[in-house]
Structure formats: C-alpha cells, structure tokens
Amino acid sequence: MKLSEYLPESHLVIDPPCKDRDDLCRIIVEHLMEHSSLREEEISQDAVSAALIEREETQTSGIGGGVAFPHARILGLKGTYNLLIVTHEGMEFHALDKKPVYVFFCSLVPREEPAILLKTRSAFVRFLKSAGGVEHLREIGSAAELAELLKANDQEVEGEIYARDLMRPVITAVNINLSLRDGARLLHSHRSDALPVVDDEGRFLGEFSCDDLFHVGLPDFFYQLPTISFMKHMNPFERYFRVDREKTLADVIEFRDKQVVAEDATLMEVVFALAVKNIATLYVLDAGNKLLGIIDRYTIIDKILVANAAETL
Prior knowledge:
Layout: H1 3-6, E1 12-14, H2 21-35, H3 45-58, E2 62-64, E3 67-68, E4 71-74, E5 81-91, E6 101-110, H4 114-130, H5 133-137, H6 143-152, H7 163-166, E7 174-175, H8 180-189, E8 194-198, E9 204-209, H9 210-217, H10 238-243, E10 260-262, H11 267-276, E11 281-285, E12 291-296, H12 297-305
Parallel strand pairs: 1-5, 3-6, 4-6, 7-8, 10-11
Antiparallel strand pairs: 2-3, 5-6, 8-9, 11-12
Helix pairs in contact: 2-3
C-alpha cells in the first residue's frame, strides 16, 4: 500500500485550533472519530485521547527538527488510523530538541501490530524528505494542496523493518577537532555516557565516551595491575588535567565498526548486535558514512516490545 492510502485528504489537517499538547491529542481523536471508521469501533473517544496523552507523558514523540509522531497502540483495536497535521506557527510539544513542532504524523494502531506503526512512520519520513522537509510543508495552505504534495511524493509502506525505521534522531554529535575539555563539558551538559563524533561533512568517525576520559587520566600500566591496594590514594585524573586543553577528540577516540549498522540493516540484524553481541549503542549510517540516527536497547523496548498502557478501553 501507498502512504496516501493511509492518509486520504480527509485525514490532512492544517492549523487546527488547539491550545497545547493535550488539546492536540483530543483534536486528533475527535477528527478521526468524525472522518474514519474509528467511530464504529467499541472504543470511547475519551479513552483513546487519554491513551495518546499517557504515551506523551511517558516519553515525548517530538523527535526534533519540527516533527512529532503522537501515537497509541491499543488493545482490541481492529483498524489502523493516521492523521497528518501541519501548523504554520508551531507549538510546544516537549520535543527532544526543545524547539516548536510544526508537523505531526499521528497514528492509532492495534497493540498486537506494532510493525505497522514503524512502517507507516518510515514511509512518512521518506515522504517528508522527498517533499522538501518541514519548511515546505509549512508553506502549504490547504488540505487539498497537501494531498497533491503527498500524491506527487508518495511512498510505499514496506513489509520489512529496517534500522532506519527504528533509529532515533541524533540530537547532538561532536566534531572530531573539539578539545578534550569541551568534549567532557558536552558529556556533562547532556548527562550522557557517550556522544557520536563526526567530521566537518557529518561523516561518522567514532564515539567519544567517559571511558575515553578515564583512559586519558589513568597511566597505561594501571590496566595491567591485579590490585591497587598500594596506590589507592593516587589522584586518577592528575594526568587528565595536564593534557585536557591540548588534546582533541581525534587523540583519544577509536572507530569501532561493530557499533555501526547500515540504514537498511534488518530488525533481526539490529537485535542480534544489541542482544547477542552485547553492543549498547548502534550508529546508523548511509552509504557515504554520514550519521543518520542512533539505536539503543531502549529503542527496541519502546518501539517493539512495550505496548501502550491502555489495556482496556
């Protein structure tokens, strides 16, 4: 099926009158109740709205870049329902990049079929890229005009799930020429154990982590010791503070190819790397080694294993 079959013109909305995130969730359900067979399902409008809101409270679907994917996986739902909303002014939606959201791709799917959520979302991302991005959609003035744009840039909703369907966007990547001190400050400000490292063209070069900082601070022989009982009062970061200004990330990081997957890696390949190879974070690259996104264990739990909390409606 094509994406346009999931998004007929009646499921395209420009500038709905909403005040905030919760109000938007209620408007999504109200519109689908009026314009789709959702009204024929044995589900109350209030319960579906509550499921959408609960999902947003658990983890925002605002991925950054002006885009959000409000959704709920609901036990007992028979159909799949999608809605595309474009707001010209944008609205606060607790996005990961803390910026306004302008484009909302909304989905209600059966709890037992999480794959359709990923497939339609992936098709929408490809459509958005083909159609000129968020800024182009913000220029659209009517649902009819948006429908034409969708048909001109239509995408197949594929059967296989790939790494590009699972990945979350990269909110922060650090440049290879950044000083060690500034890199440490970024790890601290993002409360992160590791950040991806790229060159000036956005090509992935490796990962900068707290382990790299520890290795800089500790002498090489330290890793060969069976015990530190004779030197347990040594300052492990004395060496770090002597070199943190002169060294850059290029001096300390390593490229670990086991942490890299292609954007068309299958779900099984991704799970094998995370679960069997015990890799905590996978970096998704395109054919030119540009960093596209990140997959970690939480990604799989969130998108595949854990359904929406709405057990009964």
